[in-house]
Amino acid sequence: MIQPVIQEALSAAKLGGQLADLLLKKELKLATAESCTGGLISAACTDLAGSSVWFERGFITYSNEAKTELLGVEALLIEREGAVSEAVARAMVVGALVHSHAQVAVAVTGVAGPTGGSVAKPVGTVWFGLAVPGQVVTETCLFAGDRAQVRAATVQHALTRLIELLG
């Protein structure tokens, strides 16, 4: 039996390859804006040889200040809605497009745990912003498991949803 960590890595690599094929076929570039994953989505993409053709850049915006400075997310929006919110995920993905040369972007902001959760936003809550030409989508997921499992599930969901939206 394959260990869960190895299985997750293989799944992310397979999804990354599928995403790469779609981006290359459509001649599009990808940007990422990551908070709770700390660059894991970017890593899954850039693990692939030749990714510089379709991976434009990644923003690791773990702090609220980074979200504001690098992506242009308004500080008042973060204060009013919270960093883990639909509004911030949307602003992050739009900011990734504005501050890059990409036409496709994904943003994630969430509570990976084991601390930081609340009744309204328990550990495992992740907001996604996904942008493809002509469309911006936001959605939330509640993932079970420890910190590593929440982050791995976030990467897999982000890649899967980009593939669905581009396909």
The percent of residues in helical segments reads 40-55%
**Overall structural domain count:** 1
Q: Which class do the helix and strand fractions yield?
A: alpha/beta
Q: Compute the gyration radius: what is it?
A: 15 Å
| Rounded average pLDDT | 95
Please write the CATH class name: Alpha Beta
Binned strand content: 15-25%
Largest sheet: 5 strands, mixed
- Report the CATH architecture: Alpha-Beta Complex
Low-confidence stretches: none
- Report the CATH topology name: Maf protein
Cα(first) to Cα(last) distance is 32 Å
List the strand order in the largest sheet: 2-1-3-4-5
Number of helices: 6
Indicate the multimeric state. single chain
- What's the order of the H and E elements? HEHEHHHEEEH
Tell how many strands the DSSP assignment holds: 5
Bulk shape = globular
